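Progress note, sequence design subtask.
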């Protein structure tokens, strides 16, 4: 996804891509370590509820290796958001303004809240990291249980999302161990129509299981494509086909199945230009530049309604106080993408950073990198 995607964006150079791929697939690399973690979970803690230090340690090591040698090149070198390959890594979309609203005294009083609102908890995230929770198994089995119990499952993935990307989402949908899987896999992709005239993505569906690739959307689909997200929810709830909402799924003795191409990677979109956001002091990690954080630290930042609007020496922040709009792109279904180029550094610097995996990092450097990257990934948990 970072190097080969439907937007023509190459987030880092070829050699870094090859290093990351090598760390993913090499012997005792990321995939092997994840497999070993999951095999141990199946053997030592099949219900995944016990406190097992050895198991937690092995799964945490697998997660750390994958994070620092496969995902880290994107986070460190691309300059792009892990939630949106078309966005700068410092972004105020989706808007973080609800943090300020929910932390006003009168709002908390009216809600009966006894504590301040916290968007993400580093303490909770640390617990997930220490147990390697992210690389443990069970999620696909849970989805299979739902489906085989007659519960509908609608999967939707923004096709500009790097971290929870649609390519992996599609692979996961095809790996759900449900009795419906053969028929779902044989279904083709059909256009998802948000309304009578707008194609918002592509959908594969068999009966209660659907997968939708959402065009021009990052991680939080409902923020980027609110009408589409609403339609998927309503169509699933009212037992309609996901692609059009015009076909009832029950009552006629047949099972609905979409028809079309088995693959959608050749359907390209154009990446929009990156847009300037604003520094929001209740979400500094995601919205503020290093320079703006420096102003906050040295006390020279001018803040209005939780937004850094300037500095005491007269610096005015461009775009300060904006609404945090999403970058919008064009090109539903065109055959070629328009990327934004590649990102340096490359060569010896990149090679030294990522070759050979975790063994190249000192213990202190590894700890610092894991903390930084997991804090950066906190948005995925909400």
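Output:
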């Amino acid at each position: 996804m970072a190097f080969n995607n439907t937007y023509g964006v190459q987030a880092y150079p070829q050699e870094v891509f090859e290093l990351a791929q090598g760390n993913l697939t090499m012997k005792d690399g990321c995939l092997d370590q994840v497999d070993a973690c999951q095999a141990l979970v199946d053997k030592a803690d099949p219900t995944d509820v016990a406190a097992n230090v050895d198991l937690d340690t092995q799964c945490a090591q697998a997660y750390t290796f994958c994070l620092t040698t496969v995902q880290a090149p994107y986070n460190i070198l691309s300059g792009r958001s892990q939630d949106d390959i078309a966005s700068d890594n410092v972004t105020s979309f989706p808007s973080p303004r609800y943090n300020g609203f929910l932390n006003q005294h009168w709002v908390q009083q009216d809600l009966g809240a006894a504590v301040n609102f916290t968007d993400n908890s580093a303490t909770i995230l640390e617990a997930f990291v220490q147990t390697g929770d992210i690389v443990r198994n069970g999620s696909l089995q849970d989805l299979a249980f739902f489906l085989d119990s007659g519960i509908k499952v609608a999967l939707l993935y923004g096709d500009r999302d790097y971290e929870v990307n649609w390519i992996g989402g599609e692979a996961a949908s095809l790996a759900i161990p449900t009795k419906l899987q053969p028929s779902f896999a044989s279904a083709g992709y059909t256009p998802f129509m948000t309304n009578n005239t707008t194609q918002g993505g592509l959908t594969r569906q068999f009966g209660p299981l659907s997968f939708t690739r959402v065009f021009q959307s990052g991680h939080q689909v409902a923020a980027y494509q609110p009408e589409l997200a609403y339609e998927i929810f309503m169509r699933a709830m009212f037992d309609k086909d996901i692609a059009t909402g015009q076909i009832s799924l029950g009552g006629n003795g047949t099972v609905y199945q979409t028809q079309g191409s088995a693959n959608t990677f050749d359907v390209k979109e154009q990446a929009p230009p990156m847009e300037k956001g604003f520094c929001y002091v209740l979400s500094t990690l995601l919205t503020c530049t290093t320079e703006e954080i420096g102003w906050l630290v040295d006390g020279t930042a001018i803040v209005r309604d939780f937004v850094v609007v300037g500095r005491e020496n007269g610096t005015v922040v461009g775009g300060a106080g904006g609404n945090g709009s999403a970058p919008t792109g064009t090109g539903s279904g065109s055959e070629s993408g328009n990327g934004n180029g590649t990102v340096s550094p490359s060569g010896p610097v990149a090679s030294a950073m990522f070759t050979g995996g975790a063994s190249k990092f000192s213990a202190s450097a590894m700890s610092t990198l894991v903390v930084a990257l997991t804090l950066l990934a906190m948005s995925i948990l909400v």
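The CA atoms of residues 1 and 167 lie 7 Å apart. Work on this subtask will continue into the next period as scheduled.
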